[in-house]
Amino acid sequence: MMADRPVSLLRRAKNGAATLAAAASVVLVLAPLGAVFGYLVYKGIGSINWAFLTQTPKPVGEAGGGMANAIAGSVLILLIGSIVGVPVGIGAGIYLAEYGRTRFGDLIRFTADVLNGVPSIIVGIVAYGLVVLTQKHFSALAGGVALAIMMVPTITRTTEEMLLLVPSAVREAAYGLGVSRWRTTLSITLRTATSGVITGVMLAFARVAGETAPLLFTAFGNQFWNWKLDQPTAALPLQIFTYAISPFDEWHRQAWAGALILIILIVVSVSAVRIAASRGMLKGAH
Amino acid sequence: MGVGIQVDQLNAWFGKTQALYDINMKVEANHATAVIGPSGCGKSTFVRCLNRMHETIPEAHASGGVKIGDVDVYNGSSAVQIRRRIGMVFQKPNPFPTMSIYDNVAAGLKLNGFTDRKRLDEIVERSLKLSALWEEVKDTLRKKSGASLSGGQQQRLCIARALAVEPQVLLMDEPCSALDPISTGKIEELIFQLKEHFTIVIVTHNMQQASRVAEFTGFFLLGKLIEFDKTEKIFTTPSDKRTEDYITGRFG
Question: Which residues contact A57 (CB under 8 A, 6 or more apart)?
Fold first, then answer.
């Protein structure tokens, strides 16, 4: 046996170099995230106070005021976007994974990939054409639809990938028990792939949560509270955009605070969904 | 109670490739029948034709007559109905990974709309006892996932899952090929007990296993059933030269 022979210097050096390279990559990936978040906290934390979280914007020149209506508007628009986009995306993903080995399936795959690459401002124009022009005014609904269109391709493709990762043996087990195909797909395959599908949904959610362009001429923005789905609605990215390009220092500070709130909103909702999803998991399940 | 199986002129294809040729076989109720033969001879395809699992593979199809008791498998019943009558245990243990042990056993009933919880509890317990797994898992039924069990336990879990829907026939496709000798021994013991309640068809690569558990044995070669007889006869005085060559280890 060669168990006692010392490992050669060269091999140890290679091992060390590879480990170092991997560690360096991690730092490289995490550094921008840390820097962005740190800078946001540094610039924004000072302007976050009770008024910022509970009041609507004050007119130019008046001190104080807040982004409460924009925070609520963002939540509302993201909710609409998720309610419309998630079922469509998951449904399309199921179709592609279970029935999509056809030319039609390839066409959908291609379309989804192209849609993923469409500039967000163009998605905004589409939602403007579809919803705003028909309703004759800007609305939270139009903003939600724009975000939903952006969520669908990401969710569709990740759902498909995740379902295809479920071993066919698991499907066969269900068929062997006399479970019908649609039941197998929903209760066995989709359930087995749940954590992966959730990752895709959260990825899409986090991406659209910060989108400004598709909301410009759909949700439009609003200086006041609005809970009606068919009325112009404030949204954090819009408010940040408006304030950031303004010439007033007070508004700049509020824009930083808004950006910090937006990031926190995304992190909190993604973690909440993750925790809720892992609650239902069992010991030993993956 | 188990029922007999009558196979008449069964042919099966994968696309244009024929996998089974004119198989005729009569499987006795409440006995174990072993299917042996070299790799690729059609053993698995044969049992998968009995519960119409063959046709779940794209472009695969079968023709001919299969009767389970007095139910015609290929005429007048849906594949889903047939599979509820015929349990299947696969080569590799395949519990549902995200389900608890309890839910794995109850899956066949629950997914088909069975909701009586008290009855379910009874059926799960009875099935796990039948598959000799109850003692090992009774304290973690709902807490642990089916995937957290050892390979041998997983396979007995899969047997319990198949038994829970109260099938008349149990098909086992090399159920021990991924298991160690001790787990294999447990499953073989199990087959002996299960024969009282079910008709068993078992595919195996292991000829000793066939001679240990089965009263009848069929020898397949290149998609044809070469010989079908009492196990004792097949292993001592086979009537076909090819069977003799195979069981004495001259090929395969």
Answer: A65, A66, A67, A69, A223, A239
Total domains present in chain B: 1
Q: Is A138 a member of any domain?
A: yes
For residue A174, list chain B residues with Cβ-Cβ distance below 8 A: 96, 107, 111
Q: Measured between CA atoms, how close is A92 to chain B, in angstroms? A: 21
Q: Report if residue B100 sits inside a domain.
A: no
- Residue A229 lies inside a defined structural domain of this protein: yes
Distances (CA, A) of B61 to A182, B56, B75: 21, 9, 14
How far does CA B19 lie from the centroid of its chain?
19
Q: Residue A109 is part of a domain; what is its CATH number?
A: 1.10.3720.10
* Helix/strand/coil (H/E/C) assignment for every residue in B207-251: HHHHHHHCCEEEEEECCEEEEEEEHHHHHHCCCCHHHHHHHCCCC
Instruction: Mutate one of B51, B53, B98 to test the A interface: name it (highest A CB count within 10 A).
Output: B98
- Any domain includes B131: no
CB-CB: which of A172, A183, A184 is closest to B90?
A: A172
- Strand, helix or coil at B168? coil
**Beta-sheet strand order (sheet of B199-203):** B86-89, B169-173, B199-203, B32-36, B216-221, B224-230
CATH number for position B41: 3.40.50.300
- Confirm whether the ipTM is greater than 0.95: no
Give the predicted TM-score (pTM) of the model: 0.85
Of A173, A183, A283, nearest to B96 by CB-CB distance is A173
B122: amino acid identity, one letter: E
Task: Report pLDDT digits (tens) over A191-231.
Answer: 999 989 999 999 999 999 999 999 998 988 888 888 888 88
In a domain, A39, yes or no: no
Q: What angle do CA B156, B157, B160 make, to 5 degrees?
A: 90
Q: Supply the DSSP string of B80-145, one letter for each residue.
A: HHHHHHEEEE-SS----TTSBHHHHHHHHHHTTT---HHHHHHHHHHHHHHTT-HHHHTTSTTTBB
> Does residue A118 sit within a domain?
yes
Q: Are the Cβ atoms of A178 and B80 closer than 8 angstroms?
A: yes
Q: Is residue B57 part of a domain?
A: yes
| Separation CA B228–CA B219 (nearest Å) | 6
**Residue A134: enclosing H or E segment and its boundaries?**
helix A133-135
- Using a CB-CB distance cutoff of 8 angstroms, which residues of chain B are in contact with residue A178? 80-85, 108, 112, 165
> Residues A54-69: pLDDT tens digits?
888 888 778 788 899 9
Q: CB under 8 Å, gap of 24 or more: what pairs does B113-121 form? A: none
DSSP string, A207-247: HHHT--HHHHTTTB--SS----TTS-B--HHHHHHHHHTSS
Domain count, chain A: 1
| A174: nearest CA partner in chain B | B108
Which of B12, B76, B2, B25 minimizes the C-alpha distance to B218?
A: B25
| Position A286 confidence tier, pLDDT thresholds 50, 70, 90 | very low
> Encoding tokens for residue B207?
């000829």
Q: Which residue segment(s) compose the domain that B76 sits in? A: 5-92+168-247
Q: Which structural domain, as residue segments, surrounds residue A130?
A: 74-235
